[in-house]
Amino acid sequence: METGMIARELNLKVMSGADKNNNATGGYTGDLLSDVMANAREGDIWITRQVHQNIVAVATLKDLAAIVLVNSCEPARDTLEKAMKENVVIMVSSQPAFELSGRIFNLLNSSK
Amino acid sequence: MRKASSAVWKKLKPEVNASENILVKNSFDVDGGNFDTAGTVSTRIKSILKEQGLPSDVVRRSAIVSYEAEINVVSYAKRGVINLTVTPAAVEIAVNDEGPGIPDIEKAMQQGYSTASQQIREMGFGAGMGLYNIKSYSDRFDISSEVDKGTFLKMIILIQKP
Ligand SMILES: Nc1ncnc2c1ncn2[C@@H]1O[C@H](COP(=O)(O)OP(=O)(O)OP(=O)(O)O)[C@@H](O)[C@H]1O
Ligand SMILES: [Mg+2]
Q: Is the pTM of this model over 0.80?
């Protein structure tokens, strides 16, 4: 499912990469960067509360479809600048990680 | 008191001959303590490997091991150099840093062991998984270290499985 569609369905605020519309094929939830490096798959939506600019490099290196920040966490300014430069999609949700993960899981499954 | 130690994990035989037919040879500096630029060397390495048209699995694993090694230099060392060598047979990533070194490599290799500061943990590092990830995603991994001098890592990712 396209990231733009997920944003519309779940009321996510798109902070960067609005024109990208990557295809999300799965998801991964976590705040430990080495865990995400090891276990997320290409095309995943990454659900996290980390806002530091290191998340952009992780998304680029892992070819993730998008980063979704939970609990209305706003990306740091450097993070946003870097994401725009590297064409990484960052979105923000007002929901906590547990709920948002469940919703994205259902959404991706129902579109299969 | 200085202590030198080392360890090697080999999952491959025969040895990769790195002197054959070099396609890419590049060297990158890594700035210790600078989290603003952390990950840029690995991002560069990934795009070089992609340009070479290497299989996506090789690019993916190289990106993981170079990122973890780069972040460790940024987190713990003063400065480091990452050397990338590509031959038709393998990607080799060698990392040499000047820093505190690792007193007990066996312990450092264990999942969950970390000496990361609170500040580093707040950015999402310090799970104690980096070295373990490097070991599991490379086909050969050498590590050696001398306390108060620095740490040396060499990772090999095979392009054609023997
Ligand atoms: N280049 C290095 N110089 C000095 N010490 C290091 C170096 N690399 C690793 N270490 C030591 O080994 C420990 C384990 O490293 P490892 O990369 O596995 O986990 P981490 O960096 O603590 O956390 P993570 O990588 O999961 O974010 C570190 O906490 C640190 O004490
Ligand atoms: Mg580490």
A: yes
